[in-house]
Amino acid sequence: MGELGEFGLIALVNAGRTQTSGVLLGPGDDAAVIAAPEGRFVVTTDMLVQDRHFRVDWSSPQEIGRKAIAQNAADVVAMGAVPSAFVVGLGCPADTPVEFVRALADGMWAEAGRAGASIAGGDMVRSPLIIISVTAFGDPRRAPIKLSGARPGDVVAVAGPLGHSGGGLAVLSAGSAELTAEFAEMVAAHRVPQPPYEAVLELPDTVEVTALTDVSDGLLADLGHIAESSGVAIDLDSAALSDPALEAVGKALGVSPLDWILAGGEDHAFAATFADSGDLPDGWVRVGAVRAGSGVTVDGTARTGPAGWESFA
Amino acid sequence: MGELGEFGLIALVNAGRTQTSGVLLGPGDDAAVIAAPEGRFVVTTDMLVQDRHFRVDWSSPQEIGRKAIAQNAADVVAMGAVPSAFVVGLGCPADTPVEFVRALADGMWAEAGRAGASIAGGDMVRSPLIIISVTAFGDPRRAPIKLSGARPGDVVAVAGPLGHSGGGLAVLSAGSAELTAEFAEMVAAHRVPQPPYEAVLELPDTVEVTALTDVSDGLLADLGHIAESSGVAIDLDSAALSDPALEAVGKALGVSPLDWILAGGEDHAFAATFADSGDLPDGWVRVGAVRAGSGVTVDGTARTGPAGWESFA
C-alpha cells in the first residue's frame, strides 16, 4: 500500500463503483453529501479490530468487508430505517497487499448493495493492525422503532437464524479441517452474517412492532436491553428456539447448541416485540412473550452462564 | 476499563452531557437519530491511530479528544455546512485508566460545543492501541462549497494561522523542555488546533466563495486539490504568508518557517478562493491568486520539497 499512497488507494477502492441516488456528493471533497428526505437520518457506528472481531486466517477480505457492513446495516434496519449510505475508516499496515484492500472494499460494496445502499466516502490511514470503522445511515420511513416500547402481553419473535454464527465460531475454534468442511454452512454464517433486512423493511404498515433490535451481542443480552428499556420481563420458549441444523454441530463438539442460540451473538437476526393480534408477519417466528416484571428468563427460569458478548469483559 | 465493561463505560462517558436540539435520539438504542432540516446532510470521517496521529506523552487526553473533533468539524465547515452532531468509535487496551477515557470524552464534548454540536453516539471496543474514529455531520445551509469551483482571476485567501501546528510539532520533536516552555503557544497549537469556524459560518450571503477547504495536509497539498479539481493554477505570495510568531521558532531550531506554513498541515485553518470583488470578509487574508493553468506555485515558482502529509508515504 505504501507505493500507491493514500490518494492512489482512494482512487483504487472507488474505481468502477456506482453510488446510489441518495448519495448527492461522493468521495473526493472535504465531506460527502447524503440525502435525508425525511428531514432526519439514523446513524450507527462500529469499530472492528483485527484478531478481536475478525481473523485474516479465518475469513477472506471479502468476507470481513461484508460482515463489517452487515452488522452496521442491521443496526440501521433495527430502527425501522432503510439503509441510505455508509462511510468507512480503514487502518492498515503499510505492507498490506493492495489486493487485500481491494477485496475488502469489494465485500463492503457487495453487502452495501444487498442493503440497497452504497459507500459514500471514508478515510485510510496507516496502523500497526487492521482496523475497520463503519458508520451507517438510514432513512426512517416510519417513526423510529426503539428498544423501549415493549408492553406486557406482546409477542416476542425473531427473524433469521440464531446461533449459527456461534456454532460456526466453535467449529473454527476447534481447528479441525474435517469439521470445518462438514459444517461449512455454519462456518459461512459466522464469516458472513446475512441479516434478513427484508423481514423488517417489508413489514406491512398495519403491523404494530413495539420494540426491535438486531441480535449482535446474543439473544439474552439484546432482549435484556429491550426488557430494561421497556421496564418489562421477557420469557423465552426454548422449544421454539431449537434448531435441528445446530443439533448436529453441538453433538460433534459435545456442546449444547442452546448456548449459541441464547448467547452466541453476531447472527444479526432481528428480535422484536409485536402487539398480540394473531398471525405474525412473513419471516417471523414466535419465541416468547412479554410479561410484567424485569429480566429475561427461559421457560420461566433465570439462566446462568454467559449472556453474550461484552467488549471489555 | 475491564472492570466497568462496555455498558458501564458508555454510561460513564455520557453522564451529565446535554445533547443539542439536532440530536433527536441520543445514545442507548441500536442507532441515533439526527435532524437534517435541509433534507440532506454532509458527512466526513477520520481515523486517528496512537503514535501515528497523536502521542499520549505529548498530549493530554483532553487535547487528543479536542483535536479529533476539531479536525472533523473543520471538514464539515469546509463544505459551508454547520456542524450538527458527531459519532465516535473508540478502541482502547483493557487496562486503559477510566480517567483517561473520561478526559478524552471531556475534550471531545468541549470541542463539539465550540462547533455548536454534541456527540450523539458511538462504539467502544478493546484494541491493543488507542484508535479514535470520528464521524461528523453538518447541515448545508447553502449549496455545498466544493473544491471544484475556483476560476482564473479569483483571490486566494486563508482564515486562521498557518504553520503553528508544524512549528509546535518541531518544538516537541526537539525534545527540549526549555524550548517547549518558551514556545508554549506554538506547542498548544499543535496539541489543539482551533479552526476558525466562524470565519466560514458567518460569511455574508453576498460573498461569492468559489472553492473552500480546510488546511489539514498542508497548504500546498490542500490548494493542490482545489487547483486540480477546478482545473486552474494557484500562485501564492510568500510575503503575505510570513508570520513573525514563526520566525522566532524557526531561528531557535535553525529551520525556515515557510516549510511549516506551506507543508505543515494540521492547523485546520481554512483556505478559499473568492470572486475578486474588492474587500475580503472579516477574518480572511489574501495570500495569492488563481490563474489559468495547473499546479500551485509560490512567487511564480514551483516549490521543491515536501507538499504535505501523506498517509502511506
UniProtKB/TrEMBL annotation, chains A, B:
Positions contributing to Mg(2+) 5 binding: D217
Domain PurM-like C-terminal: 151-245
Ranges of residues in domain PurM-like N-terminal: 28-138
Assigned keywords, A-Z: ATP-binding, Kinase, Magnesium, Metal-binding, Nucleotide-binding, Thiamine biosynthesis, Transferase
Keyword Nucleotide-binding included in the entry's annotation: yes
Pathways involved: Cofactor biosynthesis; thiamine diphosphate biosynthesis; thiamine diphosphate from thiamine phosphate: step 1/1
Residues that coordinate or bind Mg(2+) 4: D30, T44, D75
Catalysed reaction, written as an equation: thiamine phosphate + ATP = thiamine diphosphate + ADP
Record-listed Mg(2+) 1 binding positions: T45, D46, D123
Entry GO MF terms: thiamine-phosphate kinase activity
Pfam families registered for this protein in UniProt: AIRS (PF00586), AIRS_C (PF02769)
InterPro entries in the cross-refs: PurM-like_C_dom, PurM-like_C_sf, PurM-like_N, PurM-like_N_sf, ThiL-like
Residue numbers binding Mg(2+) 3: D30, D75, D214
Binding site for Mg(2+) 2: D46, D75
The EC number(s) this enzyme carries: 2.7.4.16
Residues holding ATP: G122, D123, S216
Cited NCBIfam families: PRK05731.1-4 (NF004351), thiL (TIGR01379)
Family per record: Belongs to the thiamine-monophosphate kinase family.
Function: Catalyzes the ATP-dependent phosphorylation of thiamine-monophosphate (TMP) to form thiamine-pyrophosphate (TPP), the active form of vitamin B1.
Further remark: Reaction mechanism of ThiL seems to utilize a direct, inline transfer of the gamma-phosphate of ATP to TMP rather than a phosphorylated enzyme intermediate.
Protein name per the record: Thiamine-monophosphate kinase
Provenance organism: Nocardia tengchongensis
Protein's gene: thiL
